Every structure is written in structure tokens, then in C-alpha cells.
Amino acid sequence: MEEVPQGCPGTGSAQAGRGASCQGCPNQRLCASGAGAAPDPAIEEIKEKMKTVKHKILVLSGKGGVGKSTFSAHLAHGLAEDENTQVALLDIDICGPSIPKIMGLEGEQFVEDNLGVMSVGFLLSSPDDAVIWRGPKKNGMIKQFLRDVDWGEVDYLIVDTPPGTSDEHLSAVQYLSAAHIDGAVIITTPQEVSLQDVRKEINFCHKVKLPIIGVVENMSVFICPKCKKETQIFPPTTGGAEVMCQDLKIPLLGKVPLDPHIGKSCDKGQSFLMDAPDSPATFAYRSIIQRIQEFCGHHPPKEEHFLSS
Amino acid sequence: MEAAVEPGNLAGVRHIILVLSGKGGVGKSTISTELALALRHAGKKVGILDVDLCGPSIPRMLRAQGRAVHQCDSGWVPVFVDQEQSISLMSVGFLLESPDEAVVWRGPKKNALIKQFVADVAWGQLDYLVVDTPPGTSDEHMAAVEALRPYSPLGALVVTTPQAVSVGDVRRELTFCRKTGLQVVGVVENMSGFVCPHCAECTNVFSRGGGEVLASLAGVPFLGSVPLDPELTRSLEEGQDFIRDFPKSPAFPALFSIAQKVMSEAPARLS
Where along the chain is ATP bound (chain A) (predicted)? Predict the structure, then answer.
């Protein structure tokens, strides 16, 4: 499955198994038999599993290092502060699974009674273990997480993703396609080098018909802890997320300033919202979380879509 | 199927260096760009191969966005980013119809393009080819290492930021290097501290210490800490030559010493 010919037409294509470049491919017979064109049965199985999950939110960014995992973790913490809300956090960054560390988990899966976490990080025996997998194997892991984990009654399932627009993102959307994703929260930082990747992610969302809840601009401004003056370490040379959101007509959920305590809380595996309740960054996070809850409340899952298939 | 590897388009490239990190957003493209600029200032001819297919940042950093890629008999002609033709660049960014177009490809298709980038770009004579990668240890990295292996790369620069969350991912990248036989030239710690321009207080915005810890864990050289500098971020945004324009920046000494280290590795490998 890993040695795919250069001109592979794609397993779902009408030419699958029949094209000139299929000669010699180990999967040629399988594709030619039409097996690749049939929908993956896992999609229905996952739809069943997800019936007990009320809201599903993907946290995306085209760009790495903008704070997806930080945001996912704090979205989870914030929602779980209400002990009656059941929250699950799924980390599908197979190569760089940061969530266990940020949530302060070594191997156990529950941070609180109402906050559970799943990550490939839990399956690795050493912190040096590298997951050197090609796309198909990563896809298999994501399928397993979605299909084989007993999620139970969950109010919010938050899916943290790696940067990019590739296997992991396609698989998450594909496997959850029958189960209704509420939408995506897209994370960026203010500078154009980030925004240019984030625009691609927004295009990805449009291509796969994933609703966008809104954009969060992280690392907006740095407030010096000594003199309290502001500096823009990552300057918004093209207007930052605000201008991008206006141009693309997407909600800007909020801007989070750069607070050095955020990094420290993540390193310690603690909730920054608890560690620094008075930080402007905490206020920003809380307001963004509220807006996300409002979005989910106003856009309940449309059950009737699943009845016709 | 393949006979002995013909040097082909990499025949004129003296040294290849990869820039890796398990973690996203730590400054791989920044370090790749600044390394290329520093090597240029030392009189070297440099090529940059950007194999980040989903997030190709390098064209913008060298003010080369929107440039066209031409064909020649040996394949693609890389884009020269300067008049003197001392830095050339190949990136998927040049092949997109629009800058907002997303490359939504699964692994096999990404592998195929990377193999092409390695074999079919007419680099000509280069002192150094810097290969910028996306974060992770997956298709792009395996494809690049496999395609470049016959040309004996100098090794990898591994970039981290100071915080533990970054070190956690980058440790895995070091394992990747070990498993694929890629020598680690050294670890670079980026975003190490920020000096407030108003009061000169230095704040560890992204924690501290990670780079040295990582280097010592893995038994590889620690090449230095690059502090946060808005001038550097701005230069990259606007595609300017930071090395030429900001020699007094606090980020300059570390960036310069990284280039020195790469150049000092090079003569030892001539064979």
C-alpha cells in the first residue's frame, strides 16, 4: 500500500487499476475489481459511534506553530469547567502529538471526570519514539481513533490537527462525513507568512464543504510584563486576521495576546485559564469559547440530512 | 529497475543540508532563508529546495512570489531571487495557479512531486543546496531523504523553540534522523527570548532552555539561540535581506554562527 506508482490515478478513479501506470502496482487487482470505489464501511460505523457525540469541532490551521494544540487544550479546559459538560479531546497529529504534554497526561486518558483525551502520544513507549509513517498508515490510525474509541455521551468532541491540508485532514473530514461536523475553528498568527497558509486552509474547508465557525488570531500582541507596553513581535504587515476575515467574509472570533505564561502552563500541563485568570489572554480565550458555544447552540445537528442516502 | 544513480541535476551541487523539526512554526523556513542569505554573503552560490507542499513559505521570504518556472532540456529551471543569480529557489508555490490555492494531496502524490523536485530541477553549479521541510516525520521527509541519499547530504539542522512542548516533538525528529542515517549538524533554538524595545527587559516568551537540553539528550552540537526580533519577522514578511540590512540585530550573531558551522562542516566532507 505504500509503494504507489508515480502516475497513480487514485483508488477512487474510474481508471483505478486500469491505467498504464497501474501496471506492476501491488494494488492493481484490488483497484481493478472496483473495491476502491466503494465507500469505506468505517464511515457508517463512525456515524453510529458519533450518535452520542453532540458537537464536533475541528481545530485547523494551514500554518504550524500558531497555537492549534494550545487552543484545543484550552477550549477543552474552558468547556469542561462546567462539570455537567462532557468534553473529549482527540489529537490526530500523529507525528507531533503535543496534547498529552499540554494536558499534563503521561498515559492516563482523563484529565477530569468530564474531560477525556485520546492521542497517538499515549501509544508510544518512549518520548523519543518517532512515528515515521506514510499517509495510508496515518489514515488507518485516525480511522481507529474515530471508530474504535468508546466515546460515550459527549457534549463536545474537539479534534486537534497537525498543520497542512493533507492525509490527516482529508481523513478526518472523510471519516466524519456522515456524522456532521459543527465546523472548524481556524487558528492563525498576525503575519502574512501565516495568513498565506491559512487562506489555503480556508480554501480546503470550502472544497470539502466544512463550515467555518471562525478564525482566532493568536500571538496578537506582546505586553511586556515589566513596563506593560505593547509590541507586535509578529507584525500584521497585511492587516492581520482582521483584514483577511473581512476579505473572505468569515467571522473573527477573537485575538489572543502573547502571554509568556501560556507557554509555561502548557509545559507544566496545566490550564492557563486557571493559572492566570486575570490575564488579558484568558479573557480573550473565554470570549472566544463563548462564541463557539453560541455557534454550536444555534446550529444544531441536522438529523434529517442522514435519512436520505 | 534503476541502475547506478546518475548524478544528473545534482551533479554540480557540492553540499546538501536539510532543515528539519518535528514541530511546526519554530522557524525552519526562517532559518533556511537566513542560512542561504548568510552563505551568499560569504560568497557562496546557494539553492533552496522548499519541499513543504502544503505551506510553501520560502517564495515570500525572498520576494519571489508569483514568479514563473521555466523548462529547459534538463528539467525545471529554478527561480533566481536576485540579479546576481547567487540564490536559486524551487517551491511548489511557483506551480500554483493562485497563492490561495490549497495543495490537498495525500502522501503518494506528495512523494512523486518531491522526487521530481530532486531529480528534475536543473540546479547547475551550487556550493550549497538548503532543503526546507514541513514539520513532522512523514511522507515528505521520507521522500526527501530517500531521493537525496545517493548524493550524501552533509546532514540536518534541527530547529526547536525553547519550550518543552517543542522539545517533545523535536526529540522524535532526532530519532527520525538516527533511523534514516542522517547526520545532525546541530540543534538551533529559535525564538529564544524577547528584549522589550521600550524598557530592554528580556522576557522568555516561549519558556527557556529547550534547545540545549535537546542537544545534550541527543549528543549533538548546540549551534546557538536566535532571539525573537520583530525586524527579522518583518524582513521575512517583505522578502528583504536581513543579513545585509540588520547586522546589529540581536538575532544576527546566532544566525551568522550557524552559517559558519555549516561551512566548517563542509570541507571535512570533501572526498
Answer: 62-69
